Amino acid sequence: METIEKVTPVTHLSIKLKNDFEKFTTAFQNLAGKITKEDLDNIAKDPEGARKHIETLQGYQGLMIFNITEHGALLALAGQKRFARQYMLGNPLFALSMTKHDIRAAIYAPLKVLVYVNDQNETFVEYDKPSDQFGQFGVAEITEFALGLDEKVSKLIAKADE
After folding, report:
1. Rounded CA gap, 107 and 63, in Å?
2. Contact at 8 Å (CB) between 64 and 33?
3. Residue 5 lies in a domain
4. Which end of the chain is more exposed for a tag (fewer CB within 10 A), N or C?
5. 18-37 pLDDT, tens per residue?
6. Using one digit for the tens of pLDDT, what is the confidence trace for 94-149?
7. Domain membership flag for residue 154
8. C-beta neighbour count of 45 within 10 angstroms
9. In a domain, 1, yes or no
10. Whole-angstrom Cα distance, residue 159 to residue 32?
11. Residue 117 is part of a domain; what is its CATH number?
12. Closest Cα partner for 120 from 154, 82, 67, 149?
């Protein structure tokens, strides 16, 4: 086994929201499309039909939620009451636009976005900049697409916080 290690700088964004946790997460979830495991399973069975179906699932900026993890509920195991929700966010067609150039881009698709309330009862959203994550592969087509993702995610967050 051979291991290659590379340190890559990633810009981490932490955005203080004007809306509270419930208002923001409700808006975020309503704006983003939703995709299920069954939708993804159907891609291999009927690629062209799946593509058309995925297009109908897209939400604002073409983004959709793959999964929601309630980290606040998990913290109850430690006796803490917290609001924290992690979203897996992206679009299989966006991932395809990148992974067809370099399969390694799949490690960052879908993206992770965390919404939480801090100890001062302020709501934040945090994520790593997609262009930094995907750009590390040095493939112009991937980097260009990921720069567009930076904008899409930023617009979704801003819209959900209106």
Report:
1. 18
2. yes
3. no
4. N
5. 999 999 999 999 999 999 99
6. 999 999 999 999 999 999 999 999 999 999 999 999 999 999 999 999 999 999 99
7. yes
8. 8
9. no
10. 11
11. 3.30.310.70
12. 82
